[in-house]
Amino acid sequence: MSAAISSLVSYGSDSDPENDSESNKSTEKEDQTHPDATAHLQPLESGHTMSLALLNAAPEVPVKEAVMTGSYLDPSLKEVAFNPTYETMFSPEFGPTNPFNNQQMAAARNMLSGYAEPAHLNDFMFEQQRRTFSTFGYALDPSVDSNQISSSSFIGAVDEAEKNKGLTVFDSGHKKPDKRKKIKGGDAEEIDNFLGPWAKYVDEKSVAKPTEEEKKELDEITAKRQKRGKIQDEAPGEEKTILHIKDMYDYQGRSYLHIPQDVGVSLRSSDAPDKCYLPKKQLHVWSGHTKGVSGIRLFPKSGHLLLSCSMDCKIKLWEVYKERRCIRTFIGHSKAVRDICFNNTGSQFLSAAYDRYLKLWDSETGKCISHFTNRKVPYCVKFNPDEDKQNLFVAGMSDKKIVQWDIRTGEVVQEYDRHLGAVNTITFVDENRRFVSTSDDKSLRVWEWDIPVDFKYIAEPSMHSMPAVTLSPNSKWLACQSMDNQILIFGAQNRFRLNKKKIFKGHMVAGYACQVDFSPDMSYVVSGDADGKLNIWDWKTTKLYHRIKAHDKVCISALWHPHETSKVITCGWDGQIKLWD
Fold it and tell me: Which residues form the WD repeats (predicted)?
């Protein structure tokens, strides 16, 4: 080894120059053929001798075929100056090819056991054959054509396949065996009548049984539960009316709907008091309802009549001036009346009750004109205030929808279905082009009329449900009774933003939809509360000015008369309606 190295190192000093030139030419040719193959054999240009440190004792040896063809490609190269063939690029880096590499090893594999070809198989067919195999022990061979099925087309229990004629689990109608039959005790019928493991130790005489009276009570309870569970196709209750005054018409032939001129106050819609004052004493009590009063409404524009609805299923019409009598009672609902609403002239009004019916009444004759239902409980009802749309009304339902009916046809003409909870209030704003709705989903939505998509959605994490909303006399603000014992004020124009400077506190209303109202001159805000008190706040400072004990139970509504300086009407769950001045 050392002799070979020394002979390689000490060449050229005593040699012939001609021989040196020829040898140099030959080396240049070899360099041109393949520079990388003989790079380690070239001498340094500076002298005729080279040191041992520059010699690579273990050079990279190319494949024999690559050396012969001159097609070897160094894998460490970053750039290739020619177009190599596929064989050149994917040939082994060093050394000869693997002599033990057979065809099976060289084949492509996409799984441990070999190469699985992709094949389309319907999911249902696969599941059908899998279940058949797990149940009967045979399945159809997937490699066999489905049009040429014979006894040899099955794998597994072929005898069972012939016996069942190749039927699958779904074709044979095979059912899993009843596990109950395997239980010790015999048939399933016996197990259905199984009274428990301790039944044989119990003496029948010692078992407590309900008496006949208790059995009747239990039967009544179960019957009521069955009624609740089923949506009954109940017919609307029989409508009737009772007139409580002697003469329906006066000496001039005018009915009680006629606006009186001799009450000492102008009752024209344009006349409103310039300055309002705090009410301090009780003036009158209207009593006639046997259960709690759920809502009151004044006659449109004039306010000379008062309409009330109650949990005793009745609606009553009262005089506000003169003798303050009960004029008429409207009977027709089978359950508590939730809401009422006059039309623009006051000649008709709508009532919504828990019997799932909305009814249209004639205010003068007391006749029920028509009834509407969609088999859901209506929580609020409102006529469209536009003069040309008095035949249309909307109702907020318990099934999260706002439904629009046409009185003339009695059909639903539009549905506003965006809320996530029962709809509690509907309030028209912006010259009746829009309306605002609140719901149990703790949100406030603003809608364009007849467009079933809300264009404004107000919901904050801190917001609570707002079951009572009132529009201010100047139509600029919405007063919303919030369930966190606050009255919130939203702008009723354009942006509907919360006015954070106007928040009225100091009363307790959580759980009750106590109606809010404004004084006609926008000086005061009034509301009832859960303790039966009438609360009065100053609009500018939001301070609680006055508090009156109005009712023994919840004071559910408070109305400030639009033509009076200090007259407020309240109603409560004690069944009374009171006038304060």
Answer: 286-320, 330-371, 416-448, 516-547, 548-581
Q: For residues 216 and 308, is the Cβ–Cβ distance under 8 A?
A: no
For residue 277, being part of any structural domain is answered with yes
Interatomic CA distance for residues 399 and 134, integer angstroms: 48
Asked if 289 and 316 touch (Cβ cutoff 8 Å), the reply is yes
- Output the tens digit of pLDDT for each of the chain's 581 residues: 444 444 444 444 444 444 454 444 444 444 444 455 555 555 545 445 544 556 667 666 555 545 545 566 777 788 888 888 888 777 766 666 677 777 766 677 788 877 777 777 788 888 888 898 998 888 888 777 766 777 678 888 888 888 888 888 887 665 555 554 444 545 555 556 677 777 777 666 666 778 888 889 999 998 888 776 554 556 677 899 999 999 888 888 899 999 988 887 877 766 788 899 999 999 999 999 999 999 999 999 999 999 999 999 999 999 999 899 999 999 999 999 999 999 999 999 999 999 999 999 999 999 999 999 999 999 999 999 999 999 999 999 999 999 999 999 999 999 999 999 999 999 999 999 999 999 999 999 999 999 999 999 999 999 999 999 999 999 999 999 999 999 999 999 888 999 999 999 999 999 999 999 999 999 999 999 999 999 999 999 999 999 999 999 999 999 999 999 999 999 999 999 999 99
User: Three-class SS of residue 360?
Assistant: strand
Both ends of the chain: CA-CA distance in Å? 130
Total tally of structural domains belonging to the chain:
1
What CATH number corresponds to the domain at position 493? 2.130.10.10
Query: What is the rounded distance in angstroms from the CA atom of residue 473 to the CA atom of residue 278?
Result: 18
Domain assignment present for residue 113? The answer is no
540 belongs to a structural domain = yes
Distance CA(289)–CA(572), nearest Å, equals 11
162 three-state secondary structure: helix
Domain that residue 409 falls in: 241-580
- For residue 428, give the DSSP letter: E
Total Cβ atoms within 10 A of residue 407: 18
